Amino acid sequence: MKLLVINPNISGDVTDLIESEALRSIRPGTELTMATAPFGVAYIETRAEAQIGGYAAMQIAAECHADHDAVVVAAFGDPGLAALREILKIPVVGMTEAALVSACQVGSRFSVIAISQRIQAWYRENIAACGFSNRLASIRALDEPLAHIGRIQEDQGERLVTLAERAVQDDGADVLILAGAPLAGLARSVASRLPVPALDGVTCALHQAQALVDLGAAAPTAGSFALPPEKPCKGLPVALARLVGRDIARSVTPGG
């Protein structure tokens, strides 16, 4: 089995964190291909940044998905997830959806521990889109500027643990989601200090991606996730144009 793991942000050190945790979650014989966005932002906090990250993820997937069995979008908020499911014939898993599903199998109510206050609105919208708003106990987030996104666990680890403890004590969380690729691995390292289970989105996504490959569900030929209709397109990278327009001769025609 071969999995393509995409970091839709430009931070290579965060990709290293993702890979380190992902390697703990794969079975013998499963291979990883890691990819980092070639453009965009250091970490996603806003709707606009999520749109950019989604496009970066689509471009990477279009160029690299061949010979892979599944794709993992390794950013909380799952930028580009639905679009990738629409244009790829292999399973596509997002950190957010994977963590939410797993959390609801562990406890009744979950809290999300996040890296910034600004990120909360976008997270709430994603949780609502997944249909889990009624299971959300709280989102608690850091309120300090992030000097170096790749070192947030070292710089802010104790504050994140305190937020997690408050989510349990004050908000009634049965399970915690330590959200975002920069926190990959933190749930494992602090699990013994927390009174309820703590989940890592990377871990959840890797396990679910492998399970979906095993499930072997056929790619849809009807419904809203069937391949989009062919049409001319312009200005897209060739690999992405093949997936979106699927007619390169027309796609490169001036004025298409």
From TrEMBL:
Pfam families per record: Asp_Glu_race
InterPro entries (UniProt xref): Asp/Glu/hydantoin_racemase, Hydantoin_racemase-like, Iso_Racemase_Enz_sf
Similarity annotation: Belongs to the HyuE racemase family.
PANTHER family, sorted: PROTEIN DCG1
Name of the protein this chain belongs to: Asp/Glu/hydantoin racemase
Coiled coil: none
GO molecular function terms attached to this record: amino-acid racemase activity
